[in-house]
Amino acid sequence: MSDAINKCSAQETAACCCVDVGTVMDNTDCTASYSQVFTDQQQAQQALAALTDKARAVESDPCDINSSINPVDGGFQLDVDFIFCCQAETLIFQLGLR
């Protein structure tokens, strides 16, 4: 499964996926979004379950998970927003998917 996490405003170095030391974490970016097309609905549901488990392993307070699986040309598109209680958890979750 290829990871398609976006909405990370932290500055990253492409060579090592490291966060710049000067990055300010001010809790304004607590959402990680994921979107990918799978060949069938079962694969999309399995990916959602795996991502949910990873989010639950990171959360200190319950993470709000909003998801949808919709038929599209070529398969089923999984769209998920993971809303954590703090930006540090969002960053840990995103880095854990790499």
TrEMBL record:
Cross-referenced InterPro entries: DUF406, UPF0234-like_C
Gene Ontology terms: cellular component: cytosol
Gene3D superfamilies given in the database record: 3.30.70.860
Source domain of life: Bacteria
Xref: Pfam families: DUF406
Family: Belongs to the UPF0381 family.
NCBIfam families, per database record: DUF406 family protein
Protein name: Protein of uncharacterized function (DUF406)
Species whose genome carries this gene: Serratia odorifera
